[in-house]
Amino acid sequence: MAESEGTRSDPHTSNPSINPTKKQSFIPLENNPEVMTSLVQKLGLPSTLAFHDVYSISEPSLLEFVPRPVHALLLVFPVTSTYEDSRREEDGPLPEYSGSGNGEEVIWFRQTIRNACGMIGLLHAACNGGARELIAPSTDLANLISNALPLDPAARAQLIEKSPNIARAHASAAAQGDTAAPAADDNVDLHFVAFVKSAENNLWELDGRRKGPLNRGKLGDEDDVLAEKALDLGVRRFLKRETDGEGNEMRFSLVALAPSMD
Q1: Residue 191 designated active-site
Q2: DSSP label at 21?
């Protein structure tokens, strides 16, 4: 389900933590499971994990095509006024997240690089939940987690900004895919949000544009992030808000990080 991060107004400049006049830029990443898989495997996930298209969240026969367990979901959607209004309303009373250290239930990365929401979404998917346990030692992902854990979100963002390995891997992935890559300074209207399950069985929504990670509710021991309860607490809740909003927007795609079919 290849789809480029289409051009329009840049949604990321609305994050007050980002200074648009000094912002580093990445070439927008194509929403393509093969490209995503190549990127996260290059960074440190094993070949036994891959991204897969999720063609339906309501038809059991189509959900059966996705290998289980699903460690993370990446929801890709257009940034709408409904999303922006909801983000501001929910974030308004919340404090800026300042978590760090081994006691964190999830590791969250603030997005400060323009057009890097695809990379931040992939990092959230790969560095949390069951996938994190499978990261190969001494790889870029393993080193990123080790270096990022003791840091606060601002310092973590700088760590990613200054990582030549992440920048090179992203550039290589952005040059792949089925569509021509936009320029790094193009405005984009598609955004990536990750959903992961923690060791404490909580479903977390991880979005680098928010004030921090968002706990969406408790899952059962047997639930993965594509289970009915997880979908109700996460993706379906998110999409219902969009369809109930002013624009009635339903243009989205969903990919799952799960066992490889190879």
Answers
A1: yes
A2: G
Tell which residue, 228, 257, 243, has the closest CA to residue 59: 228
pLDDT in tens, 45-84: 999 999 999 999 999 999 999 999 999 999 999 988 889 9
Alpha carbon distance 33, 51 (integer Å): 5
At 14, is the pLDDT very low, low, confident or very high (cuts 50, 70, 90)? very low
**With a threshold of 0.70, does the pTM exceed it?**
yes
d(CA 193, CA 171): 20
Whether residue 255 contacts residue 55, with contact meaning beta carbons closer than 8 Å, is answered with no
Distance separating alpha carbons of residues 67 and 197, to the nearest angstrom: 16
Any bridge partners for residue 193, and if so which? 75
Determine the Cα–Cα distance for residues 44 and 143; give it in Å rounded to an integer: 10
Q: What totals of helices (H) and strands (E) does the chain contain, helices first?
A: 10, 6
Which one has a higher pLDDT value, 141 or 183? 141
Give the active site residue among 52, 71, 117, 124.
117
Q: Which listed residue (52, 71, 170, 191) is catalytic?
A: 191
CB 222 within 8 A of CB 148: no
Cα–Cα distance list, 123 to 62, 142, 252 (Å): 27, 11, 20
CA angle 107, 258, 134 (to 5 degrees): 55
Contact at 8 Å (CB) between 241 and 81? no
